[in-house]
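pinned: reference chain
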Amino acid sequence: MQSRPLFAPWRMDYIKSVVKGEDDDKCFLCQAAAARTDDERRQRLALWTTDTTAVVINRYPYTNGHLLIYPIAHKPDLEELTPEEQLDLQRQTAEAVRLLKRAMSPQGFNIGINIGRCAGAGLPGHLHQHVVPRWNGDTNFMGVVGEVRVVPQAMSQLYDELLRVRHEMLHSSQQSAARSQP
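pinned: its structure tokens
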């Protein structure tokens, strides 16, 4: 069987960003956390931030709905995180899982952190946790035979859908809290 090239020119942006270095001012995670306007947040696929943590859609996903949860502070290792950062990283990971369950109905998740380039970290200077939704049978011939992943939804559509569902979730929890108060 003769292999055929699959062109993915959008990957060059990622390759160049990794080669540039790991300075805070060039870090796409730092840039996403610093986004203030709705337009900047959309451009960077930033879903939400807390005082210590941020959540973005992975621009180069393993599969549709692949999110990155990370401390806002540019730190490479778990042991450098404060107790507050550690706790919030896990809280926001759980919130990301709740969001994806409601928005996409996955049947499972891969969740993990790659520390160091040799462990697969594409951005070893800024720790981040991957949340990857999975579905039974989501391996198909494209990945097995062609070593290509198919992402069936545009990033802009996914961004809009996740923001909409998160807004619904927040609104629902606020209503529940108001009803439970005397």
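why pinned: The radius of gyration is 18 Å. The beta strands are 46-49, 53-57, 67-71, 108-113, 129-134.
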